[in-house]
Each structure stands twice: as structure tokens, then as C-alpha cells.
Write a structure and sequence with these properties.
The chain has two helices and six strands. The chain is an alpha+beta fold and 151 residues long. The chain has a single domain, classed as Gcn5-related N-acetyltransferase (GNAT) (Aminopeptidase). The protein has a six-stranded mixed beta sheet, with helices on one face. Helix 2 links the parallel strand 3 and strand 4. It is extended, with a radius of gyration of 19 Å. 13% of the residues are buried. The C terminus is likely disordered.
Length: 151
């Protein structure tokens, strides 16, 4: 029944489980809406995986997507012994290089404040990215907008 029908009753339900089918349907509708409004259909997955060179097992990495000139970073995990090391920065630099090739000049990510590297994410690295933090203390996260890449 169309939402414009006066007899339609809509409800909001709080859920604590993932309804992947509903999320996929809503995501597809949102993407279509974005395409209609912008005329741009450029969403692509992006990732950089850290793997064992012998077994091929993926040990961590960085995954997200690019769209409308933005890099969305959804998950970044590295084994403890790699964090803070030059090798630990390579997934991010690899993603940044590819995102710039795709026309991205900004990136969006969310990190937890309790992460020992969250305060220094992006600082001390040999690249020009300025970070603007939006603190959300009630959920113990920071939403960071990587304000600009220099490409």
C-alpha cells in the first residue's frame, strides 16, 4: 500500500538485531535517491587488507566505500603488534591514494575514544590531512571528518 494512502499506519520499532534485508532495501533506495538528486552513480567498495604472506590469512585491514567525492571508512582493524608501526599505516595510505584517484578529497570515519590511537589518528604521519573531531561523549565515539587530502 503506498505511503500516501490515508489509511496507512506507520510505526517505528526499536530493534537490537540486524535486519540485513531491510537495510539493503533502504540502502538501495537511498542510493537511487542520491543518484536522482546528483546525477552521479559512483559508489564503489574500497579496502586494503593486511595478510600473512605465507598462509594468505587476512589479519586486518581497512574497508569502506567511495561516493560523491567522499571516502567513507567503515572498519579499520590491525593486530596489536602492528599498531603504531610503519606497516600499520600502509592500509590507510593505500586507501588514501586510491580514493584520491577516484576523485575523493574528503573522508569520514568514526573511532572509539578508548582506542589508544584515536587521539593521534592522522597526526604524526607524513601526509597532509587535517582532522575535525565532533565529540559524541554519550556514545564514547568521535566522528572525524578528514577535512582534506592534498592530491
Amino acid at each position: 500500500m503506498p505511503a500516501s494512502d490515508k489509511n496507512t499506519k506507520l510505526v517505528i520499532a526499536l530493534v537490537d538485531t540486524s535486519n540485513e534485508e531491510a537495510q539493503a532495501k533502504a540502502g538501495a533506495a537511498l542510493y537511487q535517491y542520491n543518484i536522482e538528486k546528483t546525477g552521479v552513480a559512483d559508489r564503489r567498495p574500497i579496502g586494503a587488507e593486511l595478510s600473512d604472506s605465507i598462509s594468505g590469512e587476512v589479519l586486518g585491514g581497512l574497508w569502506g566505500q567511495t561516493e560523491l567525492g567522499l571516502l567513507f571508512l567503515n572498519m579499520f582493524f590491525l593486530p596489536e603488534d602492528v599498531r603504531g608501526q610503519p606497516l600499520g599505516e600502509r592500509p590507510l595510505s593505500t586507501i588514501e591514494e586510491e580514493a584520491i584517484k577516484r576523485g575523493c578529497r574528503r573522508a569520514v570515519l568514526t573511532i572509539h575514544q578508548f582506542s589508544r590511537h584515536s587521539q593521534s589518528f592522522g597526526s604524526g604521519r607524513a601526509r597532509s590531512i587535517s582532522l575535525t573531531a565532533v565529540r559524541r561523549p554519550r556514545v564514547n565515539q568521535e566522528s572525524l571528518l578528514l577535512a582534506s587530502f592534498l592530491g
